[in-house]
Please model this.
Amino acid sequence: MASSASGLLLASLLLSCLIHACYGDILFSSLQRTLQVTTSTRQGVLEAGEDKVNVTWGLNQTLSSGIDSAYKTVKLKLCFAPISQKDRAWRKTVDLLKKDKTCTFKIVERPYDKAVQTIDWTIERDVPTGSYFVRVYAFNAEGHEVAYGQSTDDRKTTNFFDIQAISGRHASLDIASVCFSAFSVVSLFGFFYNEKRKARNAQQK
Amino acid sequence: MGLGGTQEFGRYTDMEVQGSKREFEHPKFALPVDSEHKATEFRLYSIAAPHMRAFHLSWISFFSCFVSTFAAPPLIPIIRDNLNLTATDIGNAGIASVSGAVFARIAMGSACDLFGPRLASASLILLTAPAVYFTSIANSPVSFLLVRFFTGFSLATFVSTQFWMSSMFSSPVVGTANGFAGGWGNLGGGATQLIMPLVFGVIRDIGATKFTAWRISFFIPALFQTLSAFAILIFGKDLPDGNFSGLHKSGDKQKDKFSKVFYHAITNYRGWILALTYGYCFGVELTIDNIIAEYFYDKFNLKLHTAGIIAASFGLANIFSRPAGGFISDAMAKTFGMRGRLWSLWVVQTLGGVFCIILGQVDSLTASIAVMIIFSVFVQAACGLTFGIVPFVSRRSLGVISGMTGGGGNVGAVLTQLIFFKGSKYSKETGITLMGIMIICCTLPMMLIYFPQWGGMFFGPSKQVATEEDYYLSEWNSKEKEKGLHQASLKFADNSRSEIGRKVMSATTTPDEIPSTNV
Model:
């Protein structure tokens, strides 16, 4: 009795997930973790625009074969570690994948390949400072997520790497700022001096 | 002067004769002027010196300050990634951006009284321009907060705008002039939400990376600010007859003492009440400028771009709603005098509070946008209506009173953001509803404002003889009057007699008198 009830529950859960999936409302919790992802970087804090992240991914060989029959493409994404999401609601993790903001930077998109893949990715210049991990999503032919893998554990506690963003500043900008500011202040005093001079001349006349 | 006998408003029997002399064509001025040479008409499409030119210089420079102060919010999604800001950092910077102006506005008021609006505003604009230039080189949450704090000081130019308009335009049109100058300046807060993303996009498309493009973008508002200050210095004049410094030297204008000016401002309770009520129309407007884009973005899952456009439309309503407030104030004053100005401000601002409560309650996107626009019109009109009353509170200390009221506006912004929109105590919807309730409560003190010569909301003018002269000359002691320092106030008192309202005046006309055609 209990088993048939739980079986019914499971079936209805799966059904609702499927329905959601059909309408594009895919939940992260509905995805299976079938891919294995590892990252490797140099020691220390990585510099955006300069350093590279080496990502290796492939199907978990211990799983039954045929599980990846629906996989057509994979997308690699750079994702925020929980510490970089703290007090930053625009990076919030939400189960509904459409609204999820954990992984906002795309590394690469490739067709799915059964063999183990690897990529040496140079960190883009618009990546902000923070702690990161890499997640790989597998998509089916309709473009819906069906499975994933990530370089950290399920509770997102280990194996992060730190990136330092570019400052965006240039020496020319610094100099221009200082010069224009000085010009504003100096010209104000110039005007004052001019006014006093004109008033003195008018009085002398 | 005709201080009439025992009849209640007997003194007004002289007015019909004087009324026709109240405005006249003057060879030197393009617009008709009164005895203080203030324009009695407001012609929007003219740039005639000195009146309309002063108007255009003041609203454009104030507009540029608003653009600079709110240039960061539309670019926050980029800046927060570049500077590694948290939500707390962003909130604190937002509060800092409006808190600097609290005291700057009072200081600006004093500076206007003492040095004139031209030098006071141009100085402030040029001294805060460096803060905008330095925004380009900010590199941490602290430096970001500091540049927003110092840039926010430039919002004190609001006071010089209102002071300048009150010096250039006469009682019948001062509300309209103040409303257009204030409203078109406030427009900058909405325009910047469209300008900055556009400038950023262009610079990025030319080839700069995101984190450099936003920095370069800040040079645009900074340059605009600098150039507008130059224009004021080159083309502007403090008063219709010339600049303070020239008039001081020629003896036409008396230099006043700061301590006296300040004293007469802070001892006038009406200034304090208006400072409080202004916090709940203008202060609320600033708060909404800072939070509304995020509100729509989060509640309705809009794109940032779309939320920005909705946010911009709130500020852009200023193009007509604040001037409308000023115009309504002047129109009500024609018939009902100062009592009409007071009542219309109370009604409009209270309705603003009602629509704020509704905004926090509606759930659909269309309803929210519609209610927000209605709310913006009422709240901004209330700002215009407030500055239809401020010019009459004091003549000697007009600047400091304007500064106190303006500063009160910013205090309201700081308070509402601190109480309702910091941290996660209230959801944004609840915060908005509670803010609406606070608006209604904090507008009630208006009922306490009373002018002996014109009345208040619930009481008519004083039964004892109380004239405009009594009110404005009470700011000068006998020694100062002996020296003739009070002449400007005397002229103003005469010109402000229209604030009694035509209804009261016509009640005192005897059949043989010529009916007044224009006040």
Observations:
- Residues 193 and 382 of chain B are 23 Å apart (CA to CA).
- DSSP finds 23 helices and two strands in chain B.
